[in-house]
Design brief:
This protein has 105 residues and is of the alpha/beta class. It contains 5 helices and 3 strands.
């Protein structure tokens, strides 16, 4: 089990590693310092090896009070292995479900 966003008031950071790893990391460090690491969720810092990635992301999004989407210049045009935009590809789900999961609450 991961160090999830505990209780209400948690912060979830959504980002693309290919596009915004530095700003997301910087933001995570500042927020974790201020609010405590257990209240801030960022996948590589919060999901343990062997955990179900989609399940952990979905749970964290469902329990957060704030979702910060860090969108860089390459967010929209990033392509997958097949050459199409990753945003349009239903697989992998973790790329597309974060903001919709948050907005459905």
């Amino acid at each position: 089990m991961t160090a999830s966003v505990s209780g209400s008031g948690g912060i979830f950071i959504s980002y693309r590693r290919e596009d915004t790893p530095y700003p997301a990391g910087w933001l995570y460090e500042r927020l974790a310092d201020h609010y405590g690491g257990e209240r801030v969720f960022k996948d590589v810092d919060s999901i343990l090896p062997g955990d179900d990635f989609v399940e952990e992301i979905t749970g964290a999004v469902g329990s957060c009070a704030v979702l910060l989407a860090v969108i860089g210049e390459r967010w929209l045009p990033v392509t997958g292995d097949e050459g199409g935009r990753r945003l349009d590809d239903p697989v992998p789900l973790h790329v597309r479900h974060r903001p919709p999961a948050a907005s459905s609450r």
